Every structure is written in structure tokens, then in C-alpha cells.
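Whiteboard transcription, Tuesday session. T.W. wrote the C-alpha cells on the left side:
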């Protein structure tokens, strides 16, 4: 991977990055530290099933970067852990979340605890720092960036979501994320906290936990295992490369206007069937691995967002979908130990609960049906 070019000194140099051992958070940490711009980062991560210290191995392997990273294992919902980590930082970037829709259907409470109550604990700690700044005990109050999702808009049959559109979350995951970001906005309005919110679209790339569509299907296909495609497979997602998502978050952190929300789309909208067909082609594996299984309850049909506010702020994504998918497939082929260690232990139990009955009652997917996928396009 090429290192991001050194840039001018960042506005926020001392960061608290929560969830920095996860998929997008670790990319943010790796890329920001690799810039060698003097940034120091404290990662606070509970190391749930989704958190993996190995995601930060490239930082640990570089002595200069390693000195600028501190790793704290802990829960964002634990005020005693959070408060001391806020005293000497310029900004907090909150990636920490339960992030998988299917798990939110199996266990909604974990999402309420982390994605809502955890956010509230972080906000209270940031508010205490703002009060300290008002008393002259620190120079400025910290900025608070909340990483949210396009899923808060709910399913969008036609057109694109704009930041001022009403929220219509439909899964326990998206409901919790919506509540979390509403709390963040309320702290801007009520307490004058310096907040910004990003709403990213479906993200893909290296270090993605294999529970999600793209890495699950790549790793299953490498091992000639069945690929459980939900419903008719014509749901549409807008794919965003992980380094572009992390870069956009960094850009909003630096340049975003306080109190504002920014969509972060990938501008690569595809039916799931098309995405699956593309990755099977890249792997040289047959479509016959795909099985149609019972749909996800409440499955959102489509997400799509308008990007004019973010482009107006000066951000443009860099990765083309074809190149990003190819790089991702190569990464999973070259890093089998990374995902094989995740697909063991707790994983087997999850996989049985999530897919056991579904796969037993599955049907052949017949054809990758590009015509049907094209027809489904709004
Ligand atoms: P992930 O599941 O890969 O990582 C989440 C991280 O948070 C893990 O390291 C986990 O250990 C940590 N964590 C969970 N609960 C915690 C707690 N209570 N305290 C401290 N740490 C905790 O998630 P991701 O895909 O990297 O997503 C990061 C953020 O981006 C989330 O807020 C998610 O809602 C949002 N988002 C994700 C996508 C996507 O497609 N992956 C798209 C848009 C927005
Ligand atoms: P996912 O990666 O879980 O992201 P999200 O639900 O946040 O969009 O799923 C992406 C799409 O792929 C979504 O339409 C659900 C579908 N999907 C499957 O068809 N089979 C699967 O096994 C998984 C995990 C997802």
C-alpha cells in the first residue's frame, strides 16, 4: 500500500479514536499515522468479536508511528474509562459501534448499549472538557466527530438522500445509529459542543470482518463454500472503498462546519447480484456456489445519497470500484491467516445461527441474471 503523502499540519493533532481496532477505524489510524504529520492517537476499543489488534500491526511494525499510538482496551459506555482519555485531546472520532445488521436482529440490546448509551457517555465526557475550557483549564474544547451511516435514511426506492431528509431507520442497527447521531446533534444545539457527523455508505476493502457481504463471499468462495444470497439478490448498495471513507472522515474532521452532517457516498451503486458476479469473476469461481436463502427481515432495498455537500467541502473519492474490488480480492487471497483466525471459535456458532436453517432450505440461484439486475435499476 502506498503511504499517503505528507500534508500541511493538521488542525487536530491529538486524537481519541474509539473503535480504532475495527475495519474503518483501523484504516483511519493507519493512514493518519502514516502521514507522519505529528498526529498522536489514543485508540479506545473494547475488542469485541469485531475488534482486532492485528488491524494495527502495520503501525506497530513502524517504530516512529508506534510511538505516536497508544492503545487502551475499554468500553465507550464506561465513563470511568472514557473521562481521563479526553483531558488532553483535540478531537474525538467515534467509530466504535456494533455494526452488523444481521447481529442487530439476533441481539438488539448490544446495539442500544454501545451505539446509543456509549455515544452518550462520550458526549458527556466531551461536555465536561468544554466546561473545563470555559473555566480556562484547557485551551479549547474538543471537536466531536460521530461516524454514522446512510442506513439512518431507511430504504430509498428512487432518487438520493440529502442531509436534511427525515430519518427512517428500519433495523435495530440503523435505529441505534440514528439515535446516536441525534444525541450528538442535540449536544451541539443544547450545549454548544463542536460536533460534526458523517453518514457513510456501504464500505469495503482490506481488514473487513468476514461477516459482511463482500468479505464473507470472497472467503467462502476461496474455500468453495456456499454463498448465501438473501431474497432475490436485487437489493442495491452504494460501495465506498475503505480508504476513501476514512479519508472523507478525516476531511470532515478538519474542514467540516460545526453542527453539520455530511453524506459520504461511494457513487458505485450496484445490485448485490452484480457485486457477487464481479467477485466470482475475479476469483475464477463458478456462480453455482451462490444459493438463494430466506431474506433478512425488514431488508432495506436500496441506499443512495447525494454527495454535493461533501464535494462542496473539497472532498473527492479516489478509488474506482473495479480497482477497489480487485485489490480487496487480492488482499483476502494474500492474508488467509487473518480471516481464518476470525472464522473460528465464536464464528461457528454465529454462522450456524445465522445461516444453518437458511442454507438447509436454500435454492439454486440459477443465473447471475444481469438483465434482471439492470431492470431493477430505478
Ligand atoms: P467494525 O464492527 O469493524 O468495528 C467496530 C469496532 O468498535 C471494533 O473494533 C469493536 O471492538 C469496537 N467496539 C464495539 N463496541 C465497543 C464499545 N462498547 N467500546 C469500545 N469499542 C467498541 O465496524 P466498522 O465497519 O469499522 O464501522 C465503524 C463505524 O462506521 C461504525 O460506527 C459503523 O456504524 C459506521 N459505518 C460502517 C459502514 C460499513 O459499511 N462498515 C458504513 C457506514 C458507517
Ligand atoms: P451487509 O454487508 O451486511 O451490509 P448492510 O446490511 O449494512 O448493507 O450486506 C450488504 C448486502 O448484502 C445487503 O443487501 C444484505 C446482503 N447480504 C446477503 O445477501 N447475504 C449475506 O450473507 C450478507 C451478510 C449480506
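and on the right, the sequence the group agreed on:
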Amino acid at each position: 500500500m502506498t503511504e499517503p503523502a505528507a500534508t500541511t499540519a493538521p488542525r487536530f493533532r491529538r486524537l481519541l479514536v474509539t473503535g480504532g481496532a475495527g475495519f474503518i477505524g483501523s484504516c483511519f489510524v493507519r493512514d493518519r499515522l502514516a502521514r507522519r504529520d505529528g498526529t498522536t492517537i489514543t485508540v479506545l476499543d473494547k475488542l469485541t468479536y469485531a475488534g482486532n489488534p492485528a488491524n494495527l500491526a502495520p503501525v506497530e511494525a513502524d517504530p516512529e508511528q508506534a510511538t505516536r499510538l497508544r492503545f487502551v482496551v475499554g468500553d465507550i459506555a464506561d465513563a470511568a474509562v472514557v473521562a481521563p482519555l479526553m483531558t488532553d485531546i483535540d478531537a474525538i472520532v467515534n467509530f466504535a459501534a456494533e455494526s452488523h445488521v444481521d447481529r442487530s436482529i439476533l441481539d438488539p440490546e448490544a446495539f442500544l448499549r454501545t451505539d446509543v448509551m456509549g455515544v452518550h457517555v462520550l458526549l458527556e465526557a466531551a461536555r465536561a472538557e468544554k466546561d473545563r475550557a470555559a473555566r480556562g483549564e484547557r485551551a479549547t474544547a474538543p471537536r466531536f466527530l460521530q461516524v454514522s451511516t446512510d442506513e439512518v435514511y431507511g430504504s430509498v426506492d428512487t432518487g438520493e438522500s440529502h442531509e436534511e431528509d427525515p430519518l427512517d431507520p428500519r433495523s435495530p442497527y440503523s435505529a441505534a445509529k440514528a439515535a446516536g447521531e441525534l444525541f450528538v446533534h442535540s449536544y451541539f444545539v443544547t450545549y454548544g459542543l463542536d460536533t460534526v457527523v458523517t453518514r457513510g455508505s456501504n464500505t469495503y476493502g482490506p481488514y473487513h470482518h468476514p461477516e459482511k457481504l463482500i468479505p464473507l463471499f470472497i472467503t467462502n468462495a476461496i474455500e468453495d463454500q456456499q454463498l448465501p444470497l438473501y431474497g432475490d439478490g436485487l437489493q442495491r448498495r452504494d460501495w465506498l472503498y475503505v480508504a476513501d471513507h476514512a479519508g472523507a472522515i478525516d476531511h470532515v474532521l478538519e474542514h467540516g462546519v460545526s453542527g453539520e452532517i455530511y453524506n459520504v457516498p461511494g457513487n458505485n451503486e450496484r445490485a448485490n447480484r452484480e457485486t457477487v458476479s464481479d467477485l466470482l469473476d475475479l476469483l475464477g469461481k463458478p456462480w453455482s456456489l451462490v444459493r438463494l436463502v430466506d431474506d433478512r427481515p425488514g431488508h432495506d432495498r436500496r441506499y443512495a445519497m447525494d454527495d454535493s455537500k461533501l464535494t462542496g467541502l473539497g472532498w473527492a473519492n479516489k478509488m474506482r470500484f473495479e480497482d477497489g474490488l480487485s485489490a480487496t480480492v487480492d488482499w483476502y487471497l494474500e492474508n488467509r491467516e487473518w480471516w481464518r483466525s476470525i472464522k473460528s471459535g465464536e464464528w461457528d456458532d454465529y454462522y450456524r445461527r445465522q445461516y444453518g436453517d437458511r442454507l438447509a432450505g436454500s435454492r439454486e440461484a440459477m443465473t447471475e441474471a444481469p438483465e434482471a439486475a439492470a431492470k431493477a435499476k430505478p
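Someone added at the bottom: The chain has a mean pLDDT of 95.
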